[in-house]
Amino acid sequence: MYTAIYIAFAIAGVFFITRTIPINAVMAMIQPFRSLAAYGNGLRLLMFWLGCVLASRNRAEPRPTTAGAAVVGCVLLMLLGPAVLQAQETNGGRWIGAWTLNVPQSTFGALLAPGIPPGFMVVSQTLTIEQTAQQLRLFGETVYSDVAGSHTVMDDNQLSLDGAPTRRGPISLALRLLDNSTFDIVSDVTLGVRRLSEVSHFSVSADGQTLTETKTQTERSAGAATDTPAGTGRASTSVLIFGRRTN
Prior knowledge:
Layout: H1 2-20, H2 23-30, H3 34-60, H4 66-91, E1 97-101, E2 121-131, E3 135-146, E4 149-160, E5 166-168, E6 171-177, E7 182-191, E8 194-204, E9 210-221, E10 235-244
Antiparallel strand pairs: 1-2, 1-10, 2-3, 3-4, 5-6, 6-7, 7-8, 8-9, 9-10
Helix pairs in contact: 3-4
């Protein structure tokens, strides 16, 4: 009966959550805790049934079993604890953290946006990614040089996990969560008779220490859809390699 009620409440909870919160936000929230939930709930039911067995034996053969149950519980916690912690570390929010651009390992394509100063060159860049139940926040600092000297620019973007576009002046930004290691940021802006689209694909390495941003820019006519071939327009690709900061 306990198990049946437990499962029924779990199903009801999932139904309620998926009806009140966008599914992308739900997936983003449960990914870091999927393994913890599986181990924790499995351990809870296992200990319940173990208690039932010990109680049944205690009625049939009167003898103290509390100490035995405690020992078994401690052993199970010792066995499952490291696995839960490891699952939390490897599965939970793998892009979350502070990153530093490795300039020598990165490749920079031509910047298609107008107004790029002559002699533009990226000197350094830091990126921090944070996540809440509703948003992904990316902020950091870029140092670049041009013919006029060295300059520092701060950037801060907060994007909705459900994919709803965010407006920054004439620019539209939207987040696409792909899995626990990859996501895209899609931007679009119309400048006069030209339309500039960009897809930034972020991917975390298997060891969690490298974040690769593949930035693809495409220029089209202002009335063209984003899936229209570039035609006579221009295209550019940059691959930015970030290393995880540990301090």
